[in-house]
């Protein structure tokens, strides 16, 4: 896919032959089609089922990927791609994901999907990939990939966080559109054509979706998928899943009503306090020195803990916190 056509007409990458396909790009981005336009285009379309036979011909491969003669001149060797990682770099990449400490409730335990011995990451869910692309990938590739490969991934993470923000300015959408086009053009100079499937190309159209539908987090499917997983757990009879879900949902509603009716005397998940909500009577902290890092335990009463907490809030120097306090 050629994403240079989405660049500005005077952009320097349009005239760069060496890094791209060897041609100057003069094309313009395709016009936006409405539903009726798409219907007219597909009215006489005939779908040919089955695998399409590949036509013989020479494929265009970048010169940097051409095989070269070995030192002894007896056979050919394939050069390592620019995004290839050594075993040490793979270990570093996996260690970042394995040892990442995430806030409570932000994501699942991503470390269980990282296999350090095999040097691979597998078995993760869609929300895990979402979180990695937003926050963790930029740290993992910073030291494990070359700068010309790591920078586009870091920019991609910033772009995804930008379209996922709760408040987006219209002028910011235009900047994000230029940003993602340049990122995809950088990917074209790094990866082969097989990398650019339809999912990679859809990044170009995300900014237009923001203009039509608003912020992306409002239309997120993760909460719905999580609730569908909860309903799936109600299934006890696989031959009649709908009835099992109905009975499980009804039982859950009855238990919720009884818990709220009985109040705080009955211990249940409705009446018990949430995690990290209550403050214990005595809180214990270890204060150490450079020589003795373990230190000794210091017991704080609730009033002392609240006083320390307020002192930190009023003296942290954070503008956002100060605006909330005002």
Short description:
Residues 164-273 form the DUF4218 domain. The chain is mainly alpha-helical.
The biggest sheet amounts to: 2 strands, antiparallel
Tell me roughly what share of residues is in helical segments: 40-55%
Spatial order of the strands forming the largest sheet: 1-2
N-C termini distance: 52 Å
Using only CA atoms, what is the Rg? 28 Å
For the residues shown, what is the average pLDDT? 82
Number of DSSP-assigned strands:
6
Please state the overall shape, judged from the principal axes of the Cα atoms: extended
Overview of the molecule:
The chain contains eleven helices and six strands. The chain has helices at 35-41, 87-98, 126-144, 147-163, 170-188, 198-201, 206-213, 222-232, 241-262, 302-314, 319-325; strands at 68-69, 76-77, 114-115, 120-121, 282-287, 296-301. The chain has a two-stranded antiparallel sheet with strand order 1-2. It has a two-stranded antiparallel sheet with strand order 3-4. α4 (147-163) packs antiparallel against α5 and α5 packs antiparallel against α7 (206-213).
